[in-house]
Each structure stands twice: as C-alpha cells, then as structure tokens.
Amino acid sequence: MAAVETSFFTDFFERLIGHFVLIPLILSGLSLVAAVVIIANGVALSTLERRREISLLKAVGAKSSWVVMQLAMEDTVLGFIGGAIGVALSVAVLTLVGTAVGGNLSVSISPVIVLGVLALTVVLSLAVTLISAYPTAQEKPLDVLRGE
User: Which residues span the domain enclosing 94?
Assistant: First the structure.
C-alpha cells in the first residue's frame, strides 16, 4: 500500500476553496452589470418622457448645461437613495442569514465597503444620466414641441 502525503490533500482543498470564493465575486460583478443596465434603461426612458418639459425649459431661456445639471442632480440623489436602500437590505439579509444559520455567526460590514458602494452607485447614476441627458438637452425646442 502506498503512502499518501497530506500536503497533496491540503493543496487540493485550498485550491478548491479558492475557486468557491471566486463564485460570489463573479456573481456580484454580474449583478453590478445588470444593475447598471437597469439604471441606464430607467434613466433613458425618464429622460425621453421628459423631452417636452426639457424643451419648454429651453424655450423660456434655460441653457442646455443647466438642464443637464438639473437632471444629473435629480438622478444622483435617486442613485444615492437606491444605493442606501440596497446596502440596508443587504445588511438585513446578512443578519437574518447569520441568525438562521447558527445564531452565533456575527455579521460585520466595513464602513469603507458601504461608502464605496454608495460612491459607486452615485458615480454610475451620474454617468448614465450624463450619457442620456446630454443629447436630449441639445435638441431644438421647437422641433420637440411640434412633435417631430
């Protein structure tokens, strides 16, 4: 009977656990991409629905930059609120899972991660808003108000 070294098994299980750690990271990255697409879709639709309002503002003298800044501020606040709700729900779910699993599993979330997530949601919502609002703000008011 051949002797088996334990280092073979420990190396194998360390690599296996390392691969399992990558799965949540990949899933969270895919979730982030899906969230950006959903936010972009919502902001683009909201901007298209407000074309007449934007054109009226421009017809009475508002500059395109002011209109874009107003839309950017609105959507940035909405992005921050959405990010805060998402963080709060994540903490609540993690706490529930921690108590359901064993009761003594403590959940600690770094404030740096929370601030990073909030900053990321604000930056993404601002970028998506600027991408969709700028072309809409450049349209001629008369063309939009005529319905063309």
Answer: 8-146
Compute how many other C-beta atoms are within 10 angstroms of the C-beta atom of residue 95: 14
Indicate whether 1 belongs to any domain.
Answer: no
64-101 vs 51-59: helix crossing angle, rounded to 10: 140
> Residue 81 falls within a domain, yes or no?
yes
Alpha helix stretches (DSSP H) within the chain: 6-49, 51-59, 64-101, 111-137, 141-146
Number of domains in the chain: 1
Position 3 in a domain: no
- pLDDT digit string (tens) for 19-45? 776 777 788 778 888 888 888 888 888
For the chain, what is the radius of gyration of the CA atoms?
Answer: 24
- Measured CA to CA, the distance from residue 65 to residue 61 in angstroms comes to 12
Q: How many other C-beta atoms lie within 10 A of the C-beta of residue 54? A: 23
Give the pLDDT confidence of 69-111 residue by residue, as tens digits.
Answer: 999 999 899 889 988 998 888 888 878 877 777 666 666 778 8
User: What dihedral angle (degrees, nearest 10) is formed by the CA atoms of 75, 78, 79, 83?
Assistant: 180
